[in-house]
Amino acid sequence: MAVTTPPTKPGETEVYSTALRIYSWTPTTFIKREVPPQRRQKNQRGEYIIDPFVKELFQIEASALRLLSGPDENGLAFVETELLSGIPGSRVREECRMPDGEKHVDAGECTLCEEKAWANAESYITNVVLPELAKLRSKTMGLDGKVVPPPWVRYHDNRPTWPSKTSDTDQYILCNWDIGAHNMMFEYGMLEVIAVYDWENAGYFPPEFQFVNRSRQELDAQFEDIAKISIKQGKMAERSKALR
Ligand SMILES: [Zn+2]
Question: How far does the centroid of ligand 1 lie from the alpha carbon of residue 214, in Å?
Answer without folding.
Answer: 19
